[in-house]
Amino acid sequence: MMSMMGGGMILNMVIWIIVLGFLIYGVVLLIMKPFEKKEDSSIEILKERYARGEIDDQEFEAKKTVLRNKD
Which residue ranges traverse the bilayer (predicted)? Predict the structure, then answer.
């Protein structure tokens, strides 16, 4: 009977370690979220316009250069 109780305690500890691991992982993700590198939305809009054929190669490169030099 003692060995059965010890096995249950070990399983309980393993479950709690897994739960705490997921909790710590979630907190780290929330903390790191603001530091993720995000590309400027204006560049994304420019890429979409180029993909739709609204602007040609020269205009795309010129506008991209202007937008990147603003930073």
Answer: 6-32
Please state the three-class secondary structure of the chain as a single string.
CHHHHHHHHHHHHHHHHHHHHHHHHHHHHHHHHHHCCCCCHHHHHHHHHHHHCCCCHHHHHHHHHHHHHCC
Q: Mean pLDDT for each 10-residue chunk of the chain (71 residues)?
A: 66 94 94 74 89 93 87 57
Q: What is the DSSP letter of 35?
A: G
User: With contact defined as beta carbons under 8 Å apart, do 55 and 49 qualify?
Assistant: yes
Q: What's the whole-model pTM score?
A: 0.46
Residue with tokens 């030099």: 69
Q: At CA 44, angle to CA 39 and CA 48, rounded to 5?
A: 160
